[in-house]
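ok trying again, last paste got cut off:
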Amino acid sequence: MVNHSVKTVLLILAIFTTSVVAETSTPKIWGYGTKTCTSYIETYRSWEQGKQEQVWEYFRYRDWLAGFITALSLATGVDMMRGVKVKNAMRRINLHCEENLGLDFFTASSEFVRILGSGSLSGNK
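nice, full thing came through this time. structure:
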């Protein structure tokens, strides 16, 4: 059953990714998913340093991610996070963004979900 859920997640991510690069008549990504990785990295670093002006911005990214993960979980019938804390997800997405500055937050979040679905983060490859 785990193999089936991984295939489902990968299919959904493929559909989402395709919609980002397809024609303008396809659905668009809304909200903080459209922000750049560079913007997220700056917010994340400021949040880590305890800069109060960035705390709310960090929470906006976090809330967007929570909504994205919830939607995927409801669509697939699978708990996408499987015990992973949102704080840890945010950290992992930050690391991915640092390695891929040209991405947006949606694409980095999608990659996190793909890795999570493949078991790479938990060592269950």
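cool. The chain has a mean pLDDT of 83. Residues 2-118 form one domain.
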